Amino acid sequence: MPKFLKLLLTLSAIAFLGACADEKHYPISGEECSADDPVQDLDASIADCTPSV
């Protein structure tokens, strides 16, 4: 596959994926995000996830 075609496919994939990024709506439900949403107060350090290996 020519290098130009690989570059073109890569750039178009990035453009399509970037177009899906909407920070004002939740990705699955499509509901609008707001400042008083309960998920804004979540603290990721609460989760205690230790590897079992």
TrEMBL record:
Annotated source species: Roseovarius litorisediminis
Top-level taxonomy: Bacteria, Pseudomonadati, Pseudomonadota, Alphaproteobacteria, Rhodobacterales
Signal peptide: 1-21
Presence of the UniProt keyword Signal in the record: yes
Domain of life: Bacteria
Keywords annotated in UniProt: Signal
Protein name according to UniProt: Lipoprotein
